[in-house]
Amino acid sequence: MEPIIIEIRNELKKNADEKTRIQGEKFFRENVKIYGLKSAQTEQIGKEFYKTLPDKTKSLVFQYCEELWKSGYMEESFIACNWSYNVKKQYIASDFEVFGKWANQYVTNWAACDTLCNHSVGTLVEMYPALLSGLKKWAKSKNRWVKRASAVSLIVPARKGLFLDDIFEIADILHSDTDDMVQKGYGWMLKAASQAHQKEVFDYVMRKKATMPRTSLRYAIEKMPPELKARAMVK
User: Fold this and answer.
1) pLDDT, tens only, 4-37
2) In the chain, count of helices (H) and strands (E)?
3) Within a domain: residue 114?
């Protein structure tokens, strides 16, 4: 194992707090591995160690990220997400396969999923829009976190008004999913899209509301004016 990985783990353990660990676990229904650091602490530790890397080539950084992911600890996954985003200027389209592997093999909770997807995956898809077809394949996965990833990867692009047709297509694929983590994920994606395309998203919701899970519907209309919310919520 690389010395820097051992050093990072020692630093995380040194700063861990039992009360923070117990509080953190309450945010998840799944069993999660947490050292017990606040997110700002974890981010700062990650930043400090990243500065010490003599070689910041993507291939090496991704190797470190892989080791961090393998531990299963949430704080290490956050550092891995941040490090993989740090090398975004070196991204190439095939990195989508790397991120897909991480999502499928290592992501076990919504926080790790969203941190990876909101930043690294979303940025990659903006750089290479042809990868939207890959997200649609993710939406058909049997892995709940990969399905959620297909939607939450588009949160930031959606806020910019990008990829609306693809967003609706992914929402269609996920439409009747019974997993509330997936329902919340695609509802959040629609909500983000509504910031730039309120009418289009509202019209979409009105067409789908008879069969759309209420969880997804509530998320989708959250940013809309009260009168539109009221219309959308009428059964």
Assistant:
1) 999 999 999 999 999 999 998 988 988 899 999 9
2) 16, 0
3) yes
b/e for 122-138, b at 16 or more Cβ within 10 A? bbbbbebeebbebbeeb
Among 29, 57, 90, which residue terminates a domain?
90
**H-helix or E-strand containing 121?**
none
User: Does pTM surpass 0.70?
Assistant: yes
Pairwise CA distance, residues 129 & 67, whole Å: 29
Nearest residue to 61 (alpha-carbon basis) of 98, 17, 24: 98
Note whether 159 and 126 are within 8 A (CB). Answer: no
The CATH code of the domain that includes 171 is: 1.25.10.90
Question: Is residue 42 within 8 Å of residue 78, measured between CB atoms?
Answer: yes
Q: Domain limits at 54? A: 1-90
Per-residue tokens: 106: 């290592």
